[in-house]
Design goal:
The protein is α/β, with parallel strands linked by helices and about 110 residues long. The chain is built from 6 helices and 4 strands.
């Protein structure tokens, strides 16, 4: 929520997509909120909303959960290009989110890990 409020105060329009268990976030006065089904069941609904956002103009996607990050990585090719995201299919996000692969990468780099 702090990022939503900060962006709103700076005049940046914000839309949030949340799953039913976080529906309270969609009721924020600082954003346009949408409650969508959980992934992967709600995949087509998520993609349809992103298409709608893209038709309104350029935007930036910021994920607020592991599930949302996984969605952006896996479905990046189906998300309109004018909606930018840090995550992509060739990024290291999924490897860094998974502890086993994260520890393996740390081991290869000679970095200590828990």
């Amino acid at each position: 929520m702090p990022i939503v409020r900060t962006l709103h105060r700076r005049g940046v329009p914000v839309s949030v997509l949340v799953t039913p268990e976080h529906s309270w976030v969609a009721r924020s006065r600082w954003s346009d909120g949408h409650v969508v089904p959980l992934l992967p069941q709600g995949l087509e609904r998520w993609l349809a909303l992103l298409d709608d956002f893209a038709r309104a103009g350029d935007g930036v996607l910021i994920s607020g959960s592991d599930r949302a990050t996984e969605f952006l990585v896996r479905e990046r090719s189906r998300i309109p290009r004018n909606l930018s995201s840090f995550e992509s299919a060739d990024s290291a996000h999924l490897k860094l989110m998974d502890k086993a692969s994260l520890y393996a990468l740390a081991e290869q780099a000679g970095i200590r890990y828990p």
